[in-house]
Amino acid sequence: MSHANPQKSTGRPRVKRAAFWLAAGLFGLLLVLVSQLYATIDKPWRSGVQSGEDFTGSFSGSPLTEDGAQISARASGNGPSRFGYALQRVPGTPGHYSLTFAEGTLTSGDMVVTLTAYDGWQRLDRVRRHLQGPADLGGLRLDLQVPARARLVEFMVGGRPGTDFSLHTVQLRETAPPSTGSVSGGVLYEEAMRLIAAHALHADRLPPDYRAQWQPAPQATPAEARLAVKQVLNALGDRHSFMMDPSRRADLPQVAKATFKPARWEVVEEGIGYVEVPGFIGTDPDLRNAYATSLVEALQAGSRRGVRAWVVDLRGNGGGNMWPMLAGLEPLLRGQSLGFFEGRDGSRRAWRNDPPPAAAAVPSMAQVPVAVLTSGRTASSGEAVAIAFRGRSATRSFGAPTYGVPTANAAYTLQDGTLLLLTGARFIDRLGKGDGGPLTPDEAISDLGVANRSQVAAVAWLRAERTRGRAR
Fold first, then answer.
1. 253 upstream amide cis, omega within 30 of 0
2. Residue 312 near residue 302 (C-beta atoms within 8 A)
3. Can you tell me whether residue 231 is helix, strand or coil?
4. 222-236 vs 185-199: helix crossing angle, rounded to 10
5. What b/e readout covers 317-349, taking b as 16+ CB neighbours within 10 angstroms?
6. Which of the 8 DSSP states describes residue 206?
């Protein structure tokens, strides 16, 4: 039997392996057939007018005619509403398309206009405008340089509930590219490569032939060049570098003036307060001051209610602009070293803190116990705030490791207006520690489920700290 079993056992695996390879071969053949069939279908499967739900309005005429299309819509319901128009084109040569509104009014709400090129379901490039009402839309124009392989050009207009707009003589036409200001994809790619080599924190992680490895074709459009640059950014591995095409950059003034979520606070038990520090996106000075002041006023109100220990919640802080966050928490960090930017050459630059005027009326809280809560959603500037509390006396962190991008980006403008944001420095705490990776809390606690376990643990620790402080 000692010899029979091996014989039987060697036969079965052969049968199983043969069956496996037969099944794998059939599956592979099926994939080939399906992929060939899939490739013959012109995707997306649409042309002409497209419309979404939750709106009232009309789309008449055609954007391909001299009179153009007439569009009016009011978004209702719970989701965004939209009208669109898709134009099939024969691939093989690059093109340039323009979307124009001769007249138009955005009565209310937030409106988004996009012009997009597709190859099947793959989006090749897109220009986008974000508009806030009330606004005159007459004369608005979007231009898109379309790669040779594009098979569909589509525009969409729409908005969230409450958006009300009307557009007249909307035209989508293939036009000659601008005679001035046009930049080839090859030029943009080389410009981006020089900046990456000079400033990216992890440029040394790229393969020696990275420029040639991802270099686009000689006649590449700017959109194709941006796709190639994104491959290089992914290869850096910092998870923080990215690009912003000219159309997205055009929306930055709107983003900078976007509303924000103010700080939320409460007294959780006698002597212990809780303050949520949400992310803040934007650079508008008035909004920065208002955000920071909301944090200061939360700390001040808690102090007046007898709060002498704080839970600082960063679990939902996905980042943005770190300076208003640090400014609003200044009473807790007063007179302390906050952290540093460390470049790839090892040089360090100390963080500053510029509190809002309201902070002058708040007594220093630099010695009160603080429990910091983090999660996997705590990222970038949210991680900067967590780092500012590392090494602070009477401070402990609870929760899950952070997302892992405690790094700083610098912005560089390419010749066509594309914004290249490169990670050029890592965050270092006041003790000189920081590797650019996830921040591990002092007490790792999962908040999965209904129980708010990390906050419960934080409050228990603060309670004990206050007891020890009174005993001293």
1. no
2. no
3. helix
4. 20
5. bbbbbbbbbbbbbbbbbbebebbbbbeeeeeee
6. S
Say how far apart CA 171 and CA 387 lie, in whole Å.
52
**Pairwise CA distance, residues 277 & 386, whole Å:** 11
62: tokens are 């055609």
The alpha-helical segments, DSSP class H, found in 210-316 are: 210-213, 222-236, 246-250, 252-256, 285-304
pLDDT in tens, the chain (472 residues): 333 333 333 344 444 444 544 554 555 555 544 444 444 445 566 788 887 666 678 899 999 999 999 999 888 767 667 888 999 999 988 889 999 999 999 998 888 999 999 998 888 888 888 888 888 999 998 988 888 889 999 999 988 888 899 999 999 999 887 654 568 889 999 999 999 999 999 999 999 999 999 999 888 888 889 989 999 999 999 999 999 888 677 666 655 556 678 999 999 999 999 999 999 988 889 999 999 999 999 999 999 999 999 999 999 999 999 999 999 999 999 999 999 999 999 999 999 999 999 999 999 999 999 999 999 999 999 999 999 999 999 999 999 999 999 999 999 999 988 999 999 999 999 999 999 999 999 999 987 766 799 999 999 999 999 888 765 5
Spatial contact of 462 and 270, defined as CB atoms under 8 Å apart:
no
3-state secondary structure 365-430: CCCCCEEEEECCCCCCHHHHHHHHHCCCCCEEEEECCCCCCCEEEEEEECCCCCEEEEEEEEEECC
